[in-house]
Amino acid sequence: MKSGSSIDIKEHKNVEEKLRLLVQYAQDAIIQMNSDGLVTFWNKSAERLFGYTEKEMLGKNLHILIVPERYHKAYKIGFSKFKKSGQGAAINKTLELKGIRKDGAEFPIELSLSAVRVKGEWNTIGIIRDITSRKIAEKQLKESEKRYKIQSKELELILDNIPALIFYKDDRNNLIRVNKYFADAHKATKEALAGKNCFDIYPEDVAQKYFDDDLEVIKSKKPKLSFIEPWDVAEGRKSVNSNKIPLYEDDDKCIGIIGFSTDVTEQVKAKLKLKESEEKYRYLMDGITSVGIGIDIVTKDYKILFQNQVLKEKFGDITGKLCYEKYMGLKTPCDFCPMIKALKNNTIESTELIAADGNSYELFSAPYLDSDRTTDKVIEIVMNITERKQAEMALQESKEKYRSLFDNAQVGLYWSRISDGKFLECNNTFAKLFGYDTREECLVDYITLEHYVDLNTRNEMLEEIRVNKKVKNYEIHVTKRDGTPIWLSISARMFEKEDRIEGAAIDITMHKEAERNLKKSEEKYRTILESIKEGYFEVDLYGNFEFINNSLCEIIGYSKNELLSMNYENLCDEENKRFIFQTYNNLYKEGKGSTLFDFVQIKKNGERIYEESSVYLKFNSQGEIIGFKGLIRDITERKKTEILRRKFQQELEKEVQYRTKELNNALEKQKLYLDQIEKSSRFKTEFMGTLSHELRTPLNAIIGFTDLLLESAFGELNEEQLEFVKDIDESSNLLLDMITNILDISRIESGQVTLIVEEIHLNNLVNHAISTLKPLYDEKGLIIDLKGLKKEQLIFADRIKFKQIIYNLLSNAIKFTKKGKVTFEFRDSRDTWEFVVKDTGIGIAEKDFNIIFKEFQRVKSAYIDSIPGSGLGLALSKRIVNLHGGDILFTSKLGKGTTFTFTIPKSLRKKVNSEKIVESFLKKI
Questions:
Q1: CA-to-CA distance for 686 and 351, rounded, in angstroms?
Q2: CB count, 10 Å around CB of 321?
């Protein structure tokens, strides 16, 4: 056993030493204060953080030195409460405060406080961290958020004042954000429309078309520009020219679209009407001037009122007859007759038909205005188009082949006049380049010379065509019909005698934009690389430098021009050359990923420094490896620190070995001391046992004979004799109690007392104790108040010793209470049984708190001195409570009363259950 104890103490000391080193060299400041607020521990980080050495701080008031004066008053109030109870507003919390260094500088700190009991008094342990950098970062973040809000407000103001429909939508057809113009057009607020689904705002067919267009943009991640779509508002359906572009998140995920639409309703209507009118007018004029054109007038009920000679020759004089019978050989009106529509809409209508004579005719019907301004008849123009239809069919076949090639070409094809730039012909692809839906619209609203961003560009292109007879991939900058600028790549040839150019155009706007964005990206990329602290480099496959940032120049001392003419081998010794070559070669073979490694580099001045490098492969646009790129960080100081740390570790291990040897010697000596202490303790126990026995034997005799005298066993005593005998009896019993208590305390301290834990009926035990003390409290007229014992309560404890605790606390409360009441309260918590004895007695002064549980110590006062007692009852009660694994505390106020609270752990119940199981098992055996 002695050998085992020696090993345990040795391991304990080793653990203590490691813990001491860990706390001493922790990154955060660790400080301990005693109950008087004086520093009892101050680690190395505290020295570094505040500038005071451990020697300067030990025994000093912490708050006077490192806390701003404005916090001193709050500290005094809080520390007073903490000293009594170990509780406080800052305990077990993390706070942000201000600290003061030795030089007087204030700085922000993060403080975590914990309370610990040391030798019965409350101490506090604080962990302090410098949060200056974090506070600066928080301030910068707030400033950044403020700037963002201003920019967001400015953007919203700009969008609201653009006379166009601007909207953001997600991938479920929900509006995310709209501008004021959009909201006003829908007679709603921006806030009301945000979050609305388009199916709730527009007809289902229109909303679905919008959604299909959105999904096309989201899936392809390509914008859809300048297209006409319907727009339903309260006034009816309108037309808008729309543009939609993908809306991205930071991770390049497309989450919706941004739209920009302008109202082109009137323009579309005007163009459609113009187109219809021009086509009908052209056909009508062609028919009138052709040979063999028939003209007649027909009423709305299909009667022929007039025929010209052409029709009479073809069909005979059929005036007054029904047109569908004589012309078509039908018994009912023609389904395709244009007359009804012409009268209804007051427009010129036409159709092609095959008459009863087997020929093909083209029929035009126009409302005929009578002298009374009524229109109940039409004038018809009839042309025999049989030969033309046959020729057209042949020509159509040829044209269709040509037109199919022309119209379906993926490039824009056109003919234009050299003199004024008018387009004579174009395909739909070309028309769409300039924002038109069809070639017809484009030819009507032809592109003028004003659409060139720089007209000199056209003149230069024409000059090149004149010289070379053609141009290929000539880039020009023009504007679309809505003013949007685009870039075209033109390949063309000139027919100067015919004043005509034939050409093909391709939209390269996105390509130009990509080039511009790439240039901006490269510029931004270079700017970022020049601003970082790490050295950045790019080398080809042979190790020749192609790009270097300023930080790399600063790290190794060479200028950019010098490095761009060097190879990485020029900066390393032979060992590091081989190492770097092998590392780069492995990365090249793997064909992907990156690598991180340390190496030694030689600066321009010959100094050798440690560097850490992250290297990645460099690819061209075809995905081929063309070199390497990476970052370099100077880690010389870190390496030096690691070397010093290793040296320190070695020295520390030597010191530990030396200290361990010293500790072993000290333990050998301590072993001798422990043997002596054990002998002394055994002697003390034997002495106390003998002493108590020797004292109790005569005392028992004195008490026995005194009882006989009090019972008049040897005759009646006079009044004076009776008083003396009573004094002897009282003093003897008091002395016997004191000896018994001393013996109990001695046995507990020596570990000779074993608890006999059993199930106790608390109500019965408390009632018995109160009954025993009834004469004492009845004599004073005190009230005994029981709380928490409304039902039969079972607990587990040593019955005799637990009763001794209850008796001691209740008798003390009664002794020191002149009037009022004594309260006993039982509380059942989760892990413990809690017992409270409260009185309204004389109370205890704060200065006497520390002697309450000490042997033979009593508070000095005339009232207490008049009450017999040894000062051992509370000391013994505390030891018995601790023996059960519980704790006992008290609170008191002089002149107001005292409250004692002690706990018994419920875990004792498990011990009884376990003993019962063993006992049952043994009985079975």
A1: 138
A2: 16
- Per-residue pLDDT tens over the stretch 586-615: 888 888 777 778 888 888 888 888 888 888
Contacts of 534 (CB under 8 A, 6+ apart): 551, 631, 632, 633
Q: What are phi and psi of 425, to 5 degrees?
A: -160, 150
Six-digit token pair at 205? 């067919």
Report the candidate in 538, 551, 610 with the shortest Cα–Cα distance to residue 576: 610
For the chain, percent helix, then strand, then coil, each to nearest 5? 50, 25, 25
Half-sphere exposure of 562 (CA within 13 A, CB side): 12
pLDDT at 891: 92
Distant-in-sequence, close-in-space partners of 11: CB < 8 Å, separation ≥ 6: none
Q: What is the mean pLDDT of residues 409-431?
A: 85
Give the strand pairing for 535-540 and 500-507: unpaired
Mean pLDDT for 245-273 is 81
- Within 13 Å and on the Cβ side, how many CA atoms surround 579? 14
For residues 855 and 456, which has the higher predicted lDDT (pLDDT)? Answer: 456
| Alpha-helical regions (H) of 290-385 | 309-315, 323-326, 339-345
Sign of the torsion formed by the C-alpha atoms of 100, 103, 106 and 112:
negative
Buried b / exposed e across 632-662, counting CB within 10 Å, b at 16+?
bbbbbeebeeeeeeeeeeeeeeeeeeeeeee
pTM: 0.29
Name the phi and psi angles at 402, rounded to 5. -65, -45
In 10 A of CB 786, how many CB atoms?
Answer: 14
pLDDT (mean) for 717-733: 69
274 pLDDT band, cuts 50/70/90, is low
Alpha carbon distance 412, 429 (integer Å) = 5
Band of pLDDT at residue 897, cut at 50, 70 and 90: very high
